[in-house]
Specification:
Residues 10-395 form the Major facilitator superfamily (MFS) profile domain. Pfam families: MFS_1. It is a multi-pass membrane protein. This protein has helices spanning 2-26, 32-38, 43-71, 74-92, 97-111, 113-125, 128-159, 163-183, 198-209, 212-224, 227-242, 247-271, 277-300, 306-332, 339-363, 370-394, 396-405. It is mainly alpha-helical and 414 residues long. The chain has a single domain (2-405), classed as MFS general substrate transporter like domains (Growth Hormone, Chain: A, Up-down Bundle). Helix 2 (32-38) crosses helix 3 (43-71) and helix 13 packs antiparallel against helix 16 (370-394). The longest helix has 32 residues, at 128-159. The protein is globular, with a radius of gyration of 21 Å.
Length: 414
Amino acid sequence: MKEQKNYFILVLILGALSTISPFSVDMYLPAFPAIAKNLHTSISNIQLSLTSYLIGIAIGQLFYGPLLDRFGRKKPLYAGLWIYVLASIGCAFVSSFEGLIIMRFVQAIGGCVGMVAAQALVRDLFPVNKIAQTLAMLTLVIAVSPMIAPTLGGYIAAHFHWNWLFILLAIICTGIIISCKWQLPDGAEPDLNLSLRPVQVFKKYIEVLKNKQFLTYILVGGIAGAAPFAYIAGSSDVFINIYGLTATEYGWLFAFLSIAMIGATQLNHILLNHFSNRTIVITALSYQLVIGLIIIIGVWTAAFNVWVLIGIMFIFLTGHGLSVPNAAAISLAPFSKNAGSASAMMGFMRMAIGGLVTAMVSLFHNGTAMPMVLLMAGCILVAGMVLLFHFSATGELYNWRKKQAARPFWSKGK
């Protein structure tokens, strides 16, 4: 019982660290129209503050990876979180969209340490055969944030000034810092022999990227995981300005669609008892591609009303809770010593691709839902092509299909 309680507390804290960035993204989405109006600019410009945040996450993680390996997990973690708190306060008092873009970048540089440290600590504190299940649990905790953050953000946007959104983020992060101080284990010991010289750091990342399994599955997980970023970037404009929902209604809609990912992560626990990580990833990408094509056709022909679109997108988003944690588990499995660098590179790829996709949503903004849905489906298509290329180059698909044919479908794959 005590062991289960400690596991729950640990997963909750690691999940809280991982939700700093999702909260920072999701909570201010319902306020996009209000922020654009207050700063005298367009929604497409406010969307760029989301892009700058994702770029900041991508770049910041590359620095935190070596720092977490060199100094241990705690010191870089606290430094980054306090940067986040100060930058959140800065976001609350900007007077232009350019200032918001800059402060969001700084906020991301600080907050992204939570994502890297959480994944590295999973590798530190749990055996290899528990990584996938623990990452799935973290995904569950992360998936709860879209239920809370946009709903809360919608109410704040409707009843208060939007700058209270960022003040609240600063308060939440301060609480997480206190929890880490008293309840989070230290993790791996500092590696005092690790050089922080740029050349040596670069070589470390190159060494990580040379692992074909790691490179393939961070690309697959990163590209497939960018589909929800297209939805996040475009959904407030689509559902508020095109379909006429209020900010509060949009917050509840976002919360409802997040249930798709929560349910999928719970299903993933069950599926991992019977199927391999690879099998789940392949299956999730396959059905997401079919659903993505249906969404494109429906939007293109104006065959969907808002409720039909929401229902089909719900099905589409379940794939995120299946493909991403399993791709991450496959990516991290080869590493023990360089888990921090591997986690940082994985996070960099995810956020860099996500930032590119959100920028494309802003670039191709045309007052319709087509840029959003085309990019959602396109991400799944490209991820599937990367996986197929890897299979054809390594023969992994042939070996995988032989294993599936040689065993009952309910037995656990390896």
